[in-house]
Amino acid sequence: MKKMKVLFVASVYRHLTAFHIPYIKYFQSQGYEVWAAGTGVADKEILEKYQVKCVDIPFSRSPLSLKNIDALNVLKRLFHKEKFELVHVHTPVASILTRAAFRKSNYGKIIYTAHGFHFFKGAPKLNWLIYFTAEKVAAKWTDHLITINEEDYQNAQNLLPSEKISYVHGVGVEFEHEFFTENEKKHFKKQLGLSDKAIVISYIAELNNNKNHQFLLRNWGRLKQENPLIELLVIGNGEKENDLKKYVEKENLLGIHFLGFRRDVLKLLQISDVVALLSHREGLPKSIMEAMVVGIPCVVTNTRGLRDLIQSNKNGFVVNHEDDTALITAFTKLVQSTELRGTMGKCAKESIEPYLMDKVLMEYIRIYKNLLK
What is the DSSP letter of 128? Predict the structure, then answer.
């Protein structure tokens, strides 16, 4: 008997390895042959270790890139050759192209999880013109749309009937790791060039304009002057890495450590006292959810997805964009009070409960079963 097949698609395989391994395992446990489509050699190898069949698709993140014509053609050939009971697509450009390629298929269903629409309150008009229009067209080829924050859920009502839209609690977060002893924490800090007494702020994000590291960096000199024990871990890589490093050097900013892309983020969180994310645009950031699971208060901007997770003065602080005074005040309050960090961290741990993997996986399984019945 021929095995049933499911296909996960994202612009890069890293998206799938970072967020969707539990969903891949679920389908495998149900007897499905799981396929993946995307780009990226290292993460492709990780998926293949999970017995996932990978198909390289030359996606470009830019919606106007000519490479995407090639991507569309590869997808069309794939859907002509293979029959999938379900296609679950992620990331904006990949989602548009995959739904376009799949639209003439007379077999299977297609789901799109929007990890943060590029059109949102305060977004440039061009974003609304390009991305909302594209989503409006692609909605005709979509069997189900999953949103992961309140604002996107409301905007989705303008794309599809309510029965074709779901609002779930992200992609699920879990913490399957042995906790460090105090001695292990000291040793790990020493490895990173940090003193035992350092108060560690971690910023876990791709280094690009959207993630807005510059907001913190331009205020770092004053923060460090007023709070000498603070150290900043910049975790991630990206197109702005050299620019940010040059800025730190030019301004002679102390206590900033660029760690690059890391696969041991859960270890790094165990030595972190505060986590920051000051993005202009988010869906529902896993880095903040992981921090909350460990009981770490967070400082975030008043951005869709971030304000879904953090309530100011409860489990962290929400500051308005470019409000330097509010940013400095938020960090200073947390840095100078162990008690406040403990209280807010406990609240963070409690408020993340609905976002835990076992609960979110059940939300997805209900949607999958409804489509595949």
Answer: I
The pLDDT value recorded for residue 47 is 98
CA atoms within 13 A on the CB side of 302: 10
CA dist., res. 118 & res. 283, Å (int) = 9
Q: What is the DSSP letter of 312?
A: B
Which helix (H) or strand (E) segment is 184 a member of? helix 182-191
Contact indicator for 149, 305 with CB cutoff of 8 Å: yes
CA distance 122 to 142: 26
Round to whole Å and give the CA distance between 93 and 61. 6
Strand order in the sheet with 230-235: 256-260, 230-235, 199-204, 274-277, 298-301, 316-319
Q: Give pTM, 2 decimals.
A: 0.88
Phi then psi dihedrals of residue 132, to 5 deg? -65, -40
Kindly write down the DSSP assignment for every residue of 235-302, as one continuous string: E---TTHHHHHHHHHHTT--SEEEEES-S-HHHHHHT-SEEEE--S--S--HHHHHHHHHT--EEEES
SS3 label, residue 75: helix
Domain assignments of the chain as residue spans, ordered by start: 5-172+356-372, 182-355
Q: Residue 19, CB half-sphere, CA atoms under 13 Å: how many? A: 25
Q: What is the mean pLDDT of the chain?
A: 94
Q: Could you give the maximum distance between any two Cα atoms of the chain, in Å?
A: 69
Query: Looking at residue 120, what is its pLDDT?
Result: 85
5-172+356-372, what's its fold?
A: Rossmann fold (3.40.50)
Task: Characterise 260 by phi-psi region: left (phi > 0), alpha (psi -120 to 50), beta (else).
Answer: left
Confidence tier at 176 by pLDDT (50, 70, 90): low
pLDDT in tens, 96-111: 999 999 998 889 999 9
Crossing angle between the packed helical segments 286-294 and 338-351, to the nearest 10 degrees: 110
CA atoms within 13 A on the CB side of 117: 30
> How far is Cα 235 from Cα 89, in angstroms, rounded to an integer?
27
**What is the dihedral angle through the alpha carbons of 283, 287, 288, 292, rounded to the nearest 10 degrees?**
140
Fold identical between 5-172+356-372 and 182-355? yes
Q: In this predicted model, what pLDDT tens digit does every residue of 190-210 receive, in sequence order?
A: 999 999 999 999 999 999 999
* Annotation: CATH topology of 182-355: Rossmann fold (3.40.50)
